[in-house]
Model the fold of this input.
Amino acid sequence: MIEGKSVPLADGPLAGFLAALRHAGLTISPASSIDAYEAVAAVGYSDRETLRDALCVTLAKSEMDEARFEQCFDRFFRHHEEPTERAAKPRETASTSGGGFAQLMLTGDAVMVDAQIARAARTVGVRQVQYGFQRNILVGRILRELGMPDWDRDVAQLVDTGNDEDLAQWQATRNAVISKVKAVVDRQIDLYASNAAQQMREERLANIDIAAIRPEDRQAAIRLVRKMAKALATQHSRRRKRARRGQLDMRKTIRQAMPHEGIPFQLSWKQQSVDRPKFIVLCDVSRSVVNAAQFLLVLMYSLNEVVDQLHAFAFSDRLEDVGRVLDGDDIDVAIERILREVGFGSTSYGDAFSAFAERYMHLVDRHTSVIILGDGRNNYGDPQLDILDRIRRQSRRVVWLNPEAERSWGTGDSEMPAYRRFSTMARTCGSLSELQTIIGDMLRAPR
Amino acid sequence: MKMEDLEASDAPVDGLVSGLEGFGYVASRRIATALYLSLRLKKPILVEGAAGVGKTELALSTSQLLGLPLIRMQCYEGLDESRVLYEWKYAKQLLYTQLLKERVGDLLEGASTMDDAMARLRGIGDMFFSEDFLQPRPLLQSLMSDQGCVLLIDEVDKTDEAFEALLLETLSAYQVSLPEIGVIKASTPPIVFLTSNNIRELGDALKRRCIHLSIPLPSAELESRIVEKRLPDISSQLRGELVTFVQELRHMKLRKPPSISETVEWAQSLLMLHVEELGVDVVRETLNVLLKFESDVDAVEAQAGDLVRRAKATR
Done:
């Protein structure tokens, strides 16, 4: 604890700011809020930039946090431009509502009016606002809290309603107050609800059919996929070692035996570091599955932290190694290029498999997971099942991801039932969250 | 500068900025604020940023500024307790055992029972696991130093999780528990810097305990000041040109964009070559000081003329 300077009040603007940060997606534990209070006590409120720096270094724990923090700080303290004491002081008069408020409006004491609005806003809980569409409901509640239904009656007792001038003035005051209340609510929505809306949108994107993701949502979807990759990477970048039981680590044991005149009281076992998984991805980029393919590629490429080796191939009527294309460029440009070069042909899985077996079979070993993404619609060609079988036997596993729903597997020209037999696993990957689950399972699966 | 001066000062952050500058480190306000809070709240400071932005340098300059010794611990994969915390001086223990062997007879003379003999031996046993035979490693050293010190745990992201867990106790309470001796608590807590290159995401528990400072690549103005501080002899024209040039490079998509240390090194090379102003040929010849990958060098070389012209034009 810092002595000498008083720690700011727990319900002051800092508490509001912490709440806003939480809404913006930062994790603020009670311990970090204590840190924040102590930091503020150490640097004071007087200089905004120092305050910003101090809060940023205590609260934002990663680069992403930092960007969010900056945004949130600007938004929050822009709203707090007007000194906050004004709102805080006249709390003792909080009981004067209803008739009192109408009177207050007429006296034109702006400070008191603002204070009353702030109080009413707190009472109805504007900070809990989640979505933009709650705006009108909240405005209504605040106005009711301020006693609006009775205003006209109260005013009738105070001013002469027959006098047009007085009436007009009253109307103007009234409208001014209503728009003030609206502004208060808007500000809260800006601070607390924008992130909730964003979360809702991401949730929707994660769960709808990949094919239904609209072009204007593509960027947001790619961002989401990157986020998923980050989550997967943090989950799986840990635990690289496991004990290989039964094999003595001689060096370590002897070292540990030194204090006991060489008598090995403590035995150490050899540890084996678990390799990072290797992946080969075969993507059908014909029109029917191209959407799913690009998200799979983005996901796999964002996983470079936990994936040791990744070879990516795209095919429609021919097969192309796209690893190099993806390595260098910006991923959006790269995907566009792949689609231009290989995409939109009529698919032949058979040809793609033969081409793969001919040129790249040496890449497959027993550490490799092969992911094939496609709908299995072979345009009635030779499905080349024996090649798939060979790939499966040579690899750790073959996972077939099909963006089509399971009930349409095997209809028309779909060879899916046969391919399914020769894959270790066949799953539908209709939505982004399904994609994430499947890849997560593959990273986790023991050898 | 002493800690007390800092606390008494009206503008401690400004004080730190100018203090650090005295030792050749040009700090932004955010860096100074983070440092001030870490000193004030007695929390370790986790510094993140690309290689060469001055993470390690910050710790070095701070130790000079505060006049405290620096204990540096370079992290690598597989670092364990015996290299970080302490080890027993096995050889010395064995030597003492040998010496004592001859005396054991005298010592045990007259001991009538086994219990009696054990009681006499116990004193010796405890002696073997005392601080005399303790070989403190950096982490323990930093806790044992009386007047305090600066502990630099460099590249903490290269270690594994087990090591992170080991750090937790030390960094929150400034103490360690050694099974044979007990708890050792620092009389003056060390000032701890952890640096990370973001090779691996650090655990939340560790991050929580630290003040988190990420140092970005500097703005043109800051970078120019840093070069000036480091190389006072450099002409202001060349300085301006080379800083603009480097800033331009950072907008290109390079595999490893140059950071501050590369800028300073480059400026130094130019100074040694008696270059007065930036020219296309000089740039081509010295690019390998600035860029560390062949592909980057090729990419920049192709546009060198353009970049140099722009660097001169903006001045």
